[in-house]
Amino acid sequence: MRRYEENRMYRYLRRHKKFPNVWCPGCGIGIVMGALIRAIDRLGWEKDDIAMVSGIGCSGRMPVYMDFNTMHTTHGRALAFATGLKMVKPKMHVIAIMGDGDALAIGGNHFIHAARRNIGITAIVINNSIYGMTGGQYSPTTPTGSLATTAPYGNIDQPFPICELAIAAGATFVARGTVYHAVELDRLIEKALVHEGFSVVEAVSYCHTTFGRINKLGTAVDMLRWQKENSVTREAAAKMTPEQLQGKIVRGIFHERELPEYTAAYAKIIEQAMAAQRKA
Amino acid sequence: MEMNDRYEIRLAGEGGQGLILAGLILAEAAAVYDGKNAVQTQSYGPEARGGASKAEVVISDGVIDYPKVIAADLLLCMSQEACSKYVYGMKKNGILIVDSVHVDRVPTSRAYMIPITKIAEEATGRRITANIVALGIIVGLTGVVSRKAIEAAVRARAPKGTEALNLKALEAGLAEAERIRAEAERGQSAPSRAS
Amino acid sequence: MAARLMQGNEACVEGALAAGCRFFAGYPITPSSEIAELLSRRLPQVGGSFIQMEDEIASIAAVIGASVGGVKAMTATSGPGFSLMQENIGYAAMAEIPCVIVNVQRTGPSTGLPTKPAQGDVMQARWGTHGDHPIIVLSPSSVMETFLLTVRAFNLSEKYRSPVILLMDEVVGHMRERVELPPPESLEITNRVAAHVPPEWYFPFEDPSTDVPPLAPFGEGYRYHITGLFHDRAGFPTERVDEIDAWIARAFGRIEQHRQDIISWEEDFPAGSRVLVVAYGATARSARHAVKLARAKRYRVGFLKLETIWPFPEEITERLARQCRRVIVPEMNLGQLALEVERVVGRQKVRRVNLANGEMITPQQILAAIEEK
Questions:
Q1: Which of B44, C241, C277, C353 gets the highest tally of CB atoms within 10 A of its CB?
Q2: How far is A192 from C35, CA to CA, in rounded Å?
Q3: In C, what residues contact B, Cβ < 8 A?
Q4: C-alpha closest to that of A17 among A70, A95, A94, A96
Q5: A17–C236 CB contact, under 8 Å
Q6: Of C4, C292, C360, the CB nearest to B68
Q7: What fold does the segment set B2-185 form as a domain?
Q8: In Å, how far are A79, A109, A165, A242 from A116, measured between CA atoms?
Q9: Complex ipTM, two decimals?
C-alpha cells in the first residue's frame, strides 16, 4: 500500500473517482498517458496550471482520469476549444489530446490552423491508424491496402504523414515516438511541453481490438513487438536507403524552430492598443 | 400623427458610388446635428463594386417605426437601372433627381436631370465625390436638413485628409441647387429640368 | 451620453463591451462582419482578445474555451455559420458554459440571400442542436434595443450558466438610428457566481443552495472535469438514470423556474382591443407602424412586441390574445413563431403574415391583415 501511494503516477490520477478506465486491456493509450505524466512530473508543474483538452474517441477519454483542469469536448474540436482557453489564460500549460481521426479528419482544419498560428498548445496525436471506439472504420492514417470495417476490400486512401503535415502547416516543434519506446516517448513529450509555440507529438500506438483483429496482426504484445522491430531512430534512418526505410516508423524530433508564440504576439497588441487608448 | 411627418429619401445606383455613405451622412446630419430622428437602411448585392446599391433614409420629428421607404419623397438615381426600377415607388409630388451622366431615359417629365458626376469632376477633379455633390443638391433643393448640419456631417464622416475636398463637393452641389432655384423663380424652365 | 447615429451591429459591440465581454472569436460572414471588425479594434483596447478562427465551428469552440477560462465571451455569425455552430451550442448547453451567440439573420436556406434580411432561424435557435436542451433567445427590433438586449444576453448567460442567442436580422444589424446610450454606470451587469467553497468540496454541477451552481474558472485551484457526455455532479461521465434525470430536471428547471426574469416584452394594448398583433425583430417595426395606421382608421388593435422569444412568452401572449378575436403574427419566414402563438391561443384565431423573399414586410401588408373580415 505504501508503494502504491508513493508511486508518482497516482499523484496525477483521479484514482478514487474514475477507474477502471474505458480502454481495452493492452491498449497503447495508457502508455501515452504514463509517458505524459512522467514528463509533467519531471517538469514539476503545478496541476492547477495544466489544462488538458480532448476530443472524441478512445483518446478523448484520457482527461477524465487526470487530475488537471480537464475538458472533454466535441469530435475534432479539441484544438479550437484549447485555443480559446489559451487566449484568455496564456500562462496555463494547455495540452490537447487527440486521436488520428479526431485530429486529422474531422479536426484537420483546426490542426493546420493551430499550427499556422503557432499558438502555445502541445498537441499529442495518438495514432492507432483506425477509428477504434466506433468499431474499426478506416481513418486518415490507415495504411493503404489495410482492411477496416468500412474498407472490406482494402483501403485505397493514402495515409496522412502527421509530422510532415504539422511542419508544413507551421508547427514549431514536431516529434514522433512509439508506445513501445515509452521512455523515449516521455522525453519527446517533455521537450514538446516546454517548447514555446505549437508543438506536436505523434505517439504511434495500435489498436489490437479492431485494426489488429481485422488485419490479423495478433495480440497487443504482437503489435508492440512489431513496433520494436519496425521502427528506427532519426539518426539511424539517415544512414538507410529509401528501400530499407520502406514500412519503417522513424522516431525522433523532426522539426524545432523559434517563432513568436501567438498569445505572446497578441499580448503585445493588447499592450499597444491599451497604451494608445490611455493617450487618447 | 407621427407617420405623416416622415420624409423618405431613397438614394439608388451602383456599388462603389458611395451611396450608402451618402445616406449615412444625411441621416447623421439629421439625427446628430439637427436633433431629429433618422433611420438609415441599406440594400446591396454581393458585389463590392458595380452591383445595385441603395440607401434609404427616413427623417422625422417623431418616432420612426417602419425603417424603410414606403413611397419616396425624394429619389436620387445614379444609374439607369436604379431609375427604371425605383421611379414608380415615389410619392405623387416627390422629387426625382437623376445624374444625367449615367441616366438618359427618364419616364417622367418631372425630373431634375443634373450632370452630377460632371459637376463633381469639375469641382474636385474626383468623380468619386459625386455622392457628396448629390447631397449638396438634395439639401439645397429640399432643406430636409440644415446646411450647418450637412457640413458638420460631411466633415465628420469624410475619410481623414479628404475633408476639404468633400466640403468643396458639397459646396458645388449646394451652388447647383441654388442655380436651379433661382432659375425656377425667374419663371424660366430650368435648363437642367427635362421638359 | 450624446446622441449618435449608430448601426445595429455597432450597438451590439457597445453592448457586449459594456456587459464585460472580453473575448470574441468569429469567422467573416455577411451581414454580421461589422461586429467582428469593430471588436478586433476595441477588445485589445480594454485588455480583451479577439481571434479570427478558421470557421464557425472553431469560433464557438474557442468562445466556450475562453468562457471556461473565466472570461465573458461571444461570437457573431449569420445563417450558414449558425448552422455550423449547432453542435457546440449543444456542448455549451450540456456543460452549462455561459456564452453569447449573435446571429444576424439573412435569407436562407443554404447561402440564400447573403445581404437580405429574414427571420428564418427562429426554430433553429430553439432546436438547432440535437437533443432536448434548455436555451434562451432574445431578438431586438431597433439599434437601442440591440444594445440593451446584448447586455441582457450576457447577464442572463452569466446568471443562468447558459448559452444565450441574440437573434438579430439584417435590417436591425445594418440599420443606423439615432441613439443615446445609457451611461455605463447606470447598467446592471451580472457576473457569474464564483466558487465559494474549498476545491475539495466543489461540485461544478451541483450546489444544494441553488439550481445554478457556481462555475470556477480553469487554472484557479478548482481542478474538475467538463464533458459533453451526461455527467454527475462532479462532471464525470455517467450512465446512471438517476443522475441523468437529476441533470435534466435542474438544467431545464433553472430556465423554466425563472421565466419571469428571463422573458421580456413590450405591450401597447388599449382596453377593448379586438385584434392583437404579435411581432419581434425588424418586423415589429412594420407591425407597430401598421397598428398606428389601423388605429387612425378606428380599428381597435393591440400590439405585443416580444424581446425574449425562447422560452416562448406564453403567459403574456395568452393574457392579451384571450381578449381579442384575432391574433396577427407577421414574420420574415413562412411561419415559425406563429406555431407557438397557435399552440397558446389556438389555430383558429391566428392569422399569419409571412414573407421570406428577402424583403421586409410592409406596414400595409399587416394593415391589410388587420382590416380583413
A1: C277
A2: 37
A3: 2-5, 30, 114-116, 171, 174-178, 282, 285-286, 288-289, 292-293, 296, 360, 362-364
A4: A70
A5: yes
A6: C360
A7: Pyruvate-ferredoxin Oxidoreductase; domain 3 (3.40.920)
A8: 12, 11, 11, 30
A9: 0.97
Whether the CB-CB separation of A263 and A198 falls below 8 Å is answered with no
The number of angstroms, rounded, from the C-alpha of B193 to the middle of its chain's C-alpha atoms is 16
- The ranges assigned to domains in chain B are 2-185
Nearest-5° Cα angle at A15, A128 to A219: 30
Q: What is the DSSP string of A127-163?
A: E-SEETTTTSEE-TTSPTT--BTTBTT---SPPP-HH
CA distance C158 to A194: 35
- Note the pTM of the prediction, 2 decimals: 0.96
In angstroms, the separation between the Cα of residue C66 and the nearest Cα of chain B is 33
Question: Could you tell me the CA-to-CA distances from A44 to A48, A85, A184, C279 in Å, in that order?
Answer: 12, 22, 19, 60
* 8 Å CB contact between A70 and A52: yes
Closest-CA residue of A relative to C21 is A88
> Which residues does A contribute to its contact with C (CB < 8 Å)?
14, 17-18, 47-49, 51, 53, 63-64, 67-74, 77, 80-89, 91-92, 109-110, 113, 266, 269-270, 272-274, 276-277
CB contact under 8 A, B41 and C174: yes
Which residues from B are below 8 Å from C360, CB to CB? 66, 68
Cα–Cα dist B173/B175, whole Å:
5
Question: How far, in Å, CA of B166 to CA of C275, rounded?
Answer: 51
Q: Are A227 and A178 in contact (CB under 8 A)?
A: yes
Residues from chain B contacting residue C289 (CB–CB below 8 Å): 3, 65-66
Instruction: Tell me the pairing of strands B7-14 and A199-204.
Output: unpaired
Assess contact for A260 and A118: CB atoms under 8 A: yes
A-contacting residues in C 89-128 (Cβ below 8 Å): 91
* Alpha carbons A161 and B50: distance in angstroms, whole number: 46
pLDDT in tens, C215-234: 999 999 999 999 999 999 99
Instruction: Find the helix packing angle between C363-371 and C283-296, rounded to 10°.
Output: 50
C228 to chain B, closest Cα gap in Å: 38
CB-CB neighbors (< 8 A) of C176 in chain B:
24, 27-28, 38-41
- A2-279: CATH, from 3.40.50.1220, 3.40.50.720, 2.40.10.10, 3.40.50.970: 3.40.50.970
Which three cell numbers mark A76?
475534432
Q: What are the DSSP E strand ranges found in A7-120? A: 50-54, 69-72, 93-99
- C226 in A contact zone (CB under 8 Å): yes
Helix (H, G, I), strand (E, B) or coil at B190: coil
Q: Identify whether the C-beta of residue A92 lies closer than 8 Å to the C-beta of residue A85.
A: yes
pLDDT per residue as tens, chain A (280 positions): 455 545 788 899 997 777 788 999 999 999 999 999 999 999 999 999 999 999 999 999 999 999 999 999 999 999 999 999 999 999 999 999 999 999 999 999 999 999 999 999 999 999 999 999 999 999 999 999 999 999 999 999 999 999 999 999 999 999 999 999 999 999 999 999 999 999 999 999 999 999 999 999 999 999 999 999 999 999 999 999 999 999 999 999 999 999 999 999 999 999 999 999 999 8
What distance in Å separates residue C199's CA from the closest CA in chain A?
A: 11
Q: Taking the domains of chain A in order of start, what are their residue ranges?
A: 2-279
Candidate from A51, A80, A89 with C-beta closest to C57: A80
CA distance B123 to B125: 6
Please tell me which residue of chain C has the smallest CA distance to A22.
C237
Look up residue C321 and give its three cell numbers.
390574445
In chain C the domains, ranked by start, together with CATH numbers, are: 4-186 (3.40.50.970), 263-371 (3.40.50.920)
